[in-house]
Structure prediction request, 232 residues.
Amino acid sequence: MGQVDQLFHLQQIDDEIRAGKKRLARIVRLQADDQELLAARERATAAENELQKLRVSQNELNLELRGLNSKVKNSERRLYSGVVKNPKELSDLQHEIESLTRRRGVLEDEILEIMILAEEAGEEDKVATDSLLRMEAEREQELQELESEKTSLIQRINDLNNERKQLIALISPESMNAYEGTISRVGSTAVVVLKGVRCGGCQVGVPANLVKAADEGQLVHCDSCGRILTPM
Ligand SMILES: [Zn+2]
Prediction:
């Protein structure tokens, strides 16, 4: 392999290492990002708490209703028992029954209202829990895939680094200087392919003598952008 071919190969290795490291950084960010799952968990917890709260209220109101019913029943029993004869006492009993019955009406409305709310909360609780379970399963799958991709990527980058070391040992210090110098001037891509008589980097036409020299395997730079030219 000629020096320019080796530099081109080095360029390809460096490109892949750079892309691999970029993907690796992205994987680490994706692994750490639990935002969606946390939001789903918060929603499910809130729905469960709301449902629980409504059920407690529902129980309290039902208990109160049972108490009221038995009070009304007792008062009615006394009223119609014939035991109470005093008109004042009878009228008090009647008022008490009326007042208890009014309270019972209000209570029954409240119970109906809370039943509707509890039904809605039950639906939200079910939807939120199902969604959370689904997202947890998906996230677990995603994390497994990311971890496995990360492992192969790290292995691939290690292999490329070893290949790079072996390759660099074959490249002359002058060629290496030319490669690194070009990178520091033009950025990550130092070696580009000649497309006919155009530079593959800047697309500007390359003089015939430079094309010829590149074809012969000499290390030449594009006049326009300074990149190292390699034939197809
Ligand atoms: Zn160029």
